[in-house]
Amino acid sequence: MNLNATLFAQFVVFFILAVFTMKFVWPPLMNALDERAKKIADGLAAAERGKLEMAAAEKRVQAELASAHDAGQKRIGDAEKRAQAIIEEAKRTASEEAARIVAAAHADAQQQVSQARDALRAQVATLAVQGAEQILKREINPAIHADLLNQLKTEL
């Protein structure tokens, strides 16, 4: 066996294997690697876009939360103002009702005082007539002396 011929045969077999590998094995392998690299690059780009969208969504959420908080605070302020207005209205209504009740009680008291004065005048007139009867020792006719008795009532 000749070392040169063996070396030359191994070189030819290696060259045929290299050409076969470059022609039939290498392109699908490189395509698969390129597709994989493209998928990885697309995935990384999508992840980066997702991060950016997440940051933008977080900003929108923070803005919405801030506006909702402001709207809630405004509603609370409006509710407090409305509650104060209702309280003031209730106080005013209660004071008006109290004033009306006091005025009605005052008018009722005045009416009762007036009725008591009228009753007292009538009793005083009756007593005056009885006293005059006793003094004069004769009976005074109330029908005849009605004008005199009315004048006496008005003077009392």
UniProtKB/TrEMBL annotation:
Keyword field: ATP synthesis, Cell membrane, CF(0), Hydrogen ion transport, Ion transport, Membrane, Transmembrane, Transmembrane helix, Transport
Function: Component of the F(0) channel, it forms part of the peripheral stalk, linking F(1) to F(0). The b'-subunit is a diverged and duplicated form of b found in plants and photosynthetic bacteria. F(1)F(0) ATP synthase produces ATP from ADP in the presence of a proton or sodium gradient. F-type ATPases consist of two structural domains, F(1) containing the extramembraneous catalytic core and F(0) containing the membrane proton channel, linked together by a central stalk and a peripheral stalk. During catalysis, ATP synthesis in the catalytic domain of F(1) is coupled via a rotary mechanism of the central stalk subunits to proton translocation.
Classification via PANTHER family: ATP SYNTHASE SUBUNIT B, ATP SYNTHASE SUBUNIT B', CHLOROPLASTIC
UniProt-listed SUPFAM superfamilies: F1F0 ATP synthase subunit B, membrane domain
NCBIfam families documented for this protein: ATP_synt_b, PRK05759.1-2
The keyword Transmembrane appears for this protein: yes
Coiled-coil stretches: none
Compartments, as annotated in UniProt: Cell membrane; Endomembrane system
Bilayer topology term: Single-pass membrane protein
Name of the protein: ATP synthase subunit b
Lineage: Bacteria, Pseudomonadati, Pseudomonadota, Betaproteobacteria, Burkholderiales
Superkingdom of source: Bacteria
Similarity field: Belongs to the ATPase B chain family.
Subunit text: F-type ATPases have 2 components, F(1) - the catalytic core - and F(0) - the membrane proton channel. F(1) has five subunits: alpha(3), beta(3), gamma(1), delta(1), epsilon(1). F(0) has four main subunits: a(1), b(2) and c(10-14). The alpha and beta chains form an alternating ring which encloses part of the gamma chain. F(1) is attached to F(0) by a central stalk formed by the gamma and epsilon chains, while a peripheral stalk is formed by the delta and b chains. F-type ATPases have 2 components, F(1) - the catalytic core - and F(0) - the membrane proton channel. F(1) has five subunits: alpha(3), beta(3), gamma(1), delta(1), epsilon(1). F(0) has three main subunits: a(1), b(2) and c(10-14). The alpha and beta chains form an alternating ring which encloses part of the gamma chain. F(1) is attached to F(0) by a central stalk formed by the gamma and epsilon chains, while a peripheral stalk is formed by the delta and b chains.
Keyword Translocase: no
Parts of the chain that traverse the membrane: 6-26
